[in-house]
Design brief:
Blueprint: H1 3-10, E1 19-21, E2 24-26, H2 30-37, H3 40-45, H4 54-57, H5 65-73, H6 77-85, H7 91-97, H8 109-112, H9 120-134, E3 149-153, H10 157-168, E4 172-176, H11 185-188, H12 197-209, E5 213-215, H13 226-232, E6 235-238, E7 244-245, E8 258-260, H14 261-272, H15 278-281, E9 291-295, H16 299-310, E10 315-319, H17 331-340, E11 343-345, E12 348-355, E13 359-372, E14 378-382, E15 388-391, E16 394-397, E17 401-402, H18 406-409, E18 437-439, H19 442-445, H20 450-478
Parallel strand pairs: 3-4, 3-6, 4-5, 6-18, 8-16, 9-10, 9-16, 10-11
Antiparallel strand pairs: 1-2, 7-17, 12-13, 13-14, 13-15
Helix pairs in contact: 5-6, 5-9, 6-9, 7-9, 10-20, 14-16, 16-17
The structure holds flavin-adenine dinucleotide and iron/sulfur cluster.
Length: 479
């Protein structure tokens, strides 16, 4: 437990201290707040063991929630940890960053009856954090290493979960990643105030200690083709995520100080990890003292506005073309951002970026919601002659992500993709059209969640094992 956390627990504070600056609250300790407010055993004993575990059904990993809550309530924390980690490769990560209000907690029977959910995520996080402190989390020990090797492209949650599952079975695993650190979006996308980086780093270190080989700064498509890796390994997994930022094609789009969300978040995360980041250090990607406008209404937009607040921006506005009820982001994230002083400019859409060399503001159209479209959501329509201006020193575009053109990038034009550019895989086995090449995570789902990436990583590991076993059997037959 960190010193800060211990201090709060010892003095029995119910909420972490907050400093009022104007109408804005600073010094946020979100990660600690959950723990303090919801003491693990107290919360666990609130579970009614209702017999209809909707929480479990709505957890992508089908975590055995009622049972580990019961064990926690009884103080049997080691057993609770063992049960929890048997279905989840990173329970302490999911406990921190799953949108529980849409998954397990949102379907808790106690929540449904109006008495407030059991805070499942906080308990899950607590169980595993405690296990780390107690020394119960140990590296994989392989007794009989197999001769077959698997290459995994992408060290995000999908790649890491698959790597762990397959290493446990004795396979030789090499994980390739184009970044300098493992963890994918858990390390450079999701901000530190939601997921502390040491939590990710200790996981990857544990995998390394378990014999998984990491090759960082290695970009498939540049440092090797997919075919070269296919020749090197008995099977491949592509778990490269989705990184092509959606663009806004408006007048003034090429002005300076308009950045894609990932550029802003990566700089901030790298700083948090102690790196020298020139564009942050010279102020370009630092929100301090500036008027920040974030365009978008998803969770990435929420991460950008909340990071800007923590960097002590002068003002932070979020432009979204629908209203609050129709935001795609988690309601909890929006509430957090509002509480921290972010101003939401609902029903508004940028019309033009204004400035000479650098952006100085935006011209914005007012929007009204029309009839529902094919997706069932009400269509945003521009209100004629309604535009107004907003001042901006930095604009951050957070409009979502699409897959990169992997067949082209990998030099494998025969690798099949869907009409959305995600990799096409067999529904049951997650194998692509290239034999022995599998795919998992965002690159098959589109931008999704860590918990789904972990689920995919676990599922694909089973398919890869089956594939390698049948390959081995057919070799034996020939021999
Ligand atoms: C800002 C932001 C905040 C988010 N917040 C949350 C949250 O709070 N909760 C939640 O559940 N989810 C969140 N998500 C979504 C979540 O992070 C992703 O769904 C998840 O990380 C996908 O896992 P993945 O393993 O498929 O891909 P990634 O995590 O994207 O990992 C892919 C890895 O592949 C590597 N790679 C890509 N191309 C190559 C190549 N050619 N060669 C070698 N390596 C390559 C990348 O460097 C990366 O490390 C967030 C996403 C973003 C962008
Ligand atoms: S993995 Fe996510 S959805 Fe499942 S129990 Fe944990 S927090 Fe809830």
């Amino acid at each position: 437990m960190s010193e800060k956390m211990l201090k709060f627990v010892k003095i029995g504070q119910q909420t972490p201290p907050k400093r009022e600056v104007g109408n804005r609250k600073e010094d946020f300790n979100e990660i600690y707040k959950e723990f303090i407010n919801n003491k693990a055993s107290e919360q666990s004993s609130r579970c009614s063991q209702c017999g209809v575990p909707f929480c479990q059904v709505h957890c992508p990993l089908s975590n055995n929630i009622p049972d580990w809550l019961k064990l926690t309530a009884e103080g049997r924390l080691k057993e609770a940890y063992e049960l929890s980690q048997s279905t989840n490769n990173m329970p302490e990560v999911c406990g921190r960053i799953c949108p529980q209000d849409r998954l397990c907690e949102g379907n808790c029977v106690i929540e449904q009856s109006g008495h407030g959910t059991v805070t499942i995520g906080s308990v899950e996080k607590y169980i595993t954090d405690n296990a780390w402190e107690q020394g119960w989390v140990n590296p994989i020990k392989v007794k009989n290493e197999k001769s077959q090797s698997i290459g995994i492209i992408g060290a995000g949650p999908a790649g890491l979960a698959a790597a762990e599952q397959l290493r446990k079975l004795g396979y030789q695993i090499t994980v390739y990643d184009r970044y300098d650190r493992a963890g994918g979006l858990m390390i450079y996308g999701i901000p530190n105030f939601k997921l502390e980086k040491f939590v990710v780093e200790r996981r990857t270190k544990l995998l390394e200690e378990g014999g998984i080989k990491f090759v960082q700064n290695f970009e498939v498509g540049k440092d090797a083709t997919l075919e070269q890796l296919r020749k090197k390994h008995d099977s491949l997994l592509i778990a490269t995520g989705v990184y092509k930022a959606r663009e806004i094609d408006l007048p003034g789009k090429d002005l300076g100080n308009i950045f894609p969300a990932m550029e802003f978040l990566t700089a901030s995360n790298k700083k948090g990890l102690g790196d020298r980041v020139e564009l942050f250090d010279n102020g370009t990607l630092n929100a301090e003292g500036k008027n920040i406008v974030v365009i978008g209404g998803g969770d990435t937009a929420m991460d950008c506005v909340r990071t800007s607040i923590r960097q002590k921006a002068k003002s932070v506005k979020c432009l979204y073309r629908r209203d609050k009820e129709n935001m795609p982001g988690s309601a909890r994230e929006v509430a957090n951002a509002e509480e921290e002083g972010v101003e939401f400019v609902w029903l508004s859409s940028p019309k033009e970026f204004v400035g000479t060399n650098k952006v100085e503001g935006l011209m914005v159209d007012k929007i009204k919601l029309g009839e529902p479209d094919d997706s069932g959501r009400r269509k945003p329509e521009i209100q004629n002659d309604s535009h107004f201006n907003i001042k901006a020193d930095i604009v951050i575009k957070a409009l979502g992500f699409d897959p990169e053109n992997l067949p082209k990038l990998f030099g494998s034009e025969d690798l099949q993709v869907t009409k959305w550019g995600t990799l096409k895989t067999n529904f049951d086995t997650m194998e692509t059209n290239l034999p022995g090449v599998f795919a998992a995570g965002d690159i098959i789902r589109g931008a999704s969640l860590v918990v789904w990436a972990i689920k995919d990583g676990r599922d694909v590991a089973v398919s890869i094992k089956n594939f390698l076993e049948s390959k081995e059997h057919s070799k034996e037959k020939v021999a």
